[in-house]
Amino acid sequence: MRSITAQIWKAKDGWRWHMKRSGRIIAESGEGYKRPSGARKTLEHIINAIQAGAIKILPVVAAALLLLPGCATTGQPKPDPVAITITAIDTVVPIGVEYAAQQDPNCVPYLRAAVQVLNAAAANGNYRPVELLAALDASSTHELATPIARAAVMAGIGLYQGLLQAQVISNTQAVAIINALAGAIQSGIPPLAPSKAKRA
Predict the structure, then answer these.
(1) Of the candidates 77, 37, 59, 50, which has an alpha carbon nearest to the alpha carbon of residue 162?
(2) What span, in angstroms and rounded, lies between the C-alpha atoms of 48 and 147?
(3) For residue 30, what is the enclosing H or E element?
(4) Which H or E run includes 61?
(5) How far is residue 66's CA from residue 136's CA, in Å, rounded to a whole number?
(6) C-alpha angle with apex 43: 160 to 68, nearest 5 degrees?
(7) What digits encode the pLDDT tens for the residues 108-123?
(8) Cys-Cys with 49: which of 54, 76, 79, 129 at CB 3.0–4.6 Å?
């Protein structure tokens, strides 16, 4: 596999990042971040997903990140970043979850627990990404998390964190995003196989 390089730089609209392979840009931030740490954290989440073995879902994550800012050239008002983040989560996470479950069905209890942890966090006011990650790590099924399953969940948390780095959101918006992430994970989990009825 060819080496991938990453770069963060100051642009007119803030701090931006991109990733290159063989001199070609393969992913980039769609807009500037207020702080270099925001750009760096988003980039680190993507790099961690690559290192965790989630390379097959990286193009989907990158495409979702490119959707976040909308298109500035159309003259249309910029779309709501919260709605775009939810759309990106709804697009990216179920694919990653489904792929993780296909690769190793033993990770499904971890994914189901992640849904419960996120629902509880939304209900209890634990909105910060670091709190979400700590709750996931404290889950009794944490040891069942495969690198790909963890990367699928992290893709959604990374999109949420990227939004938080770019702007302040209300608690209501945070709850909507966390609930969307829980729903996206749930929708990617394969349904339970129906029990076979015993014949008398």
Answers:
(1) 37
(2) 10
(3) none
(4) helix 58-67
(5) 27
(6) 45
(7) 999 999 999 999 999 9
(8) 54
CA-to-CA distance for 55 and 134, rounded, in angstroms? 24
Alpha-carbon distance of 164 to 166, in angstroms, equals 5
Predicted model pTM: 0.63
Mean local confidence (pLDDT), 121-145: 87
Burial class (CB in 10 A: 0-12, 13-18, 19+), 177: buried
Question: Does an H or E element contain 174, and which?
Answer: helix 171-188
State how far the Cα of 105 lies from the Cα of 42, in Å rounded to an integer: 28
Return the pLDDT at 51: 56
List pLDDT tens digits, range 152-183: 888 888 888 878 877 788 999 999 999 999 99
Q: Check if the beta carbon of residue 156 is closer than 8 Å to that of residue 178.
A: no
Cα–Cα distance measured from residue 49 to residue 112, given in angstroms and rounded to the nearest whole number: 20
